[in-house]
Design a protein that fits this description.
eight-stranded mixed β-sheet, 11 strands, alpha/beta
Length: 305
Amino acid sequence: MAVAAVPLATIASAQTPGTGGTVIPLYRKGSVPSLGVPEKRDRLPNGETMIYDVSEPTLELFRPASGRANGTAVIVAPGGGFVALGYTFGGTDVARALAARGVTAFVLKYRTIRSGDGPMRMPDVHMKEMGVVISRAKTGTPVEMPRFAGEAHAVEDGVRAMAIVRQHASEWSIEPHSVGVIGFSAGAYLAADLAIGDAPSRPDFVGLIYGGLRTPVPAGAPPAFIAGAADDEYQPNDPVLLYTAWRKAGAAAELHLYERGGHGFDLHRQGTTSDHWFDQLLSWMQARGLASSSRPQTNSPSTDE
């Protein structure tokens, strides 16, 4: 996909929301089609924020403390089946924890499909997709999940986000060749799509956290940190499938398949070995020269608590 140069006016229109980061629109207002309904946010009892009906995608920037940026940037892509975004647990919490370790972090609020009626807001097309997901988890067929209804627009937003971060790297104290994407669930599909897509928009590394298989993986695919749980009710086999595809292509990959953790582990501890995924991701990044070994100096969400 071709991406035009990102105008400085886009960055100049950034705003600071209640979550504490700086929000940067990906496109000029009105330049991408709207879903025709207002964006919705649900605050769940557990503290998660679900965002639905996203027509205006953004990046939310979380910068390390002054003097602590190490040059690495990570775009965090939350999950939600391309219908919603779990914006806190798989977004801002992770971005703050990365920033506490010197990584300049962005949360990608990518476009979703239009939500449905009722308390769960699930549209018919996604209910059909979930039927395939559940059947595939039991039978292993199809080997690769067909593209989701909202995946193409989300990937376009990911390409745009990569362009913005790289074009403004010096402004944010980022090394333009140290920009990664870490995705959760649907966000991991997005990250994998970017990793196997056109070379100019590929991340320099990816974290695929309880995501799904995307092929073909080229020989030039970036290094991948792959994590999932064997008791994932939706994608129990995909971590191994992803690792195998990466290694078959001759690309670097590291696999962590936990006995328990389910689908959706994050920085909140469950008492399982999947609780350690973030520390293991940091260790992998440190080994590749992408993160420092220093402990965080803030009260940002982390696995150290």
